[in-house]
Amino acid sequence: MVLCSSLLAPLHAQLATGTINGFVKDPTGAAIPGAKVTAKMVEQQAVRETQTNADGFYTFPAMPPGNYEITFEAGGFKREVRTGLELTVNQNLRVDASLEVGAPETEITVAATAPLVDTTSHTLSGLIDDRRVVDLPLNGRNVIGLARILPGVLGVSAPQQVDDARGGPEMNVNGGRPNMNLFTFNGGYFNNPSRNTGMNYPPPDAVEEVRILTHNFAAEYGRNPGSQVNVVSRAGTNEFHGSAWEFLRNDALNARNFFSSRVPAVKQNQFGAAGGGPVIKDKVFVFGSYQGLRDHR
Predict the structure, then answer these.
(1) Residue 161 — very low, low, confident or very high, per pLDDT cuts 50/70/90?
(2) Nearest to 201 by CA among 229, 243, 178, 240
(3) Residue 8: φ, ψ to 5°
């Protein structure tokens, strides 16, 4: 799998994105119209700009998930910078600002200390972020296996074979059948056409996050009445990063079961690599991954 990305604004049907919005006000609580708001994605240094309307409201729709820095500027007020803002897939990130009166050359930096709560949506969902993808034990290295940690999700089957088109992940969400879930990858349809269950995703090292919506979906979702599974891939940044892995399972390393006369034969290698970086600094990035499975039983 190889992915390329640039700074062009993504379409809703192409990428799983989020929204950043909020109000800009003065110390008295009055709206500041025409304030300049800049959102910078730290990983790729991508910059988007907008202005507040007459009510002091601004919005950045269709923003790729990542770490953001938001800057607020207005004539007669000090510049305010919000750092450490983490935007996840399908999230409405509310970031309000109250600017202080002063010279615009004066800058106030506010670091985010806790995750912000989405108060604009009634959708119930669970997020499996990149730390959970990396840190949690995952037998078979299929990221859908991590859905077991979410409430209401049962009967998870996440096979590791990637050569069987009919062997994709299945799960029961809130009592629904396995073929009632809608799977997407970077916003694109990812259901098995023959069984209407999921297809196998790239290895965990190529996945940024997984969000599973279980209740009260927005109007943009549909087709399947069960959960909505959104998987987002990693992307290249301005720095080169990569990883390689080898998982060995061999009967020479296993102990005999007490009730068995011999150790069951197993000779399996699961290996691969992932990496990404800039093609053109601050403009075009590339990320790719490969995983192989050799089972000699």
Answers:
(1) low
(2) 229
(3) -65, 140
Q: Are 245 and 271 in contact (CB under 8 A)?
A: yes
Q: Which residues of 29-44 are buried (b: 16+ CB within 10 A; e: fewer)?
A: eeebeebbbebbbebb
CB 138 within 8 A of CB 159: no
Q: Tell me the C-alpha distance between 152 and 154, whole Å.
A: 6
Residue with tokens 């049962």: 154
For the chain, the residue count is 297
Write out the E strands in the chain.
2-6, 18-25, 36-41, 46-51, 57-63, 66-73, 79-87, 92-94, 97-98, 107-111, 124-128, 153-157, 170-173, 182-185, 188-189, 207-215, 228-233, 241-250, 267-280, 284-295
d(CA 88, CA 235): 14
Tens-digit pLDDT profile for residues 18-33: 999 999 999 999 999 9
- The answer to whether the predicted template modeling score (pTM) of the entire model surpasses 0.90 is no
Contact 272, 288 (CB under 8 A): no
Rounded Cα–Cα distance for residues 18 and 184 (Å):
15
Backbone angles phi, psi at 225, to 5 degrees: -80, -10
Amino acid at 5: S
pLDDT tens digits along 178-200: 999 999 999 999 998 888 999 98
Domains and CATH numbers, the chain: 2-111 (2.60.40.1120), 124-233 (2.170.130.10), 241-295 (no CATH)
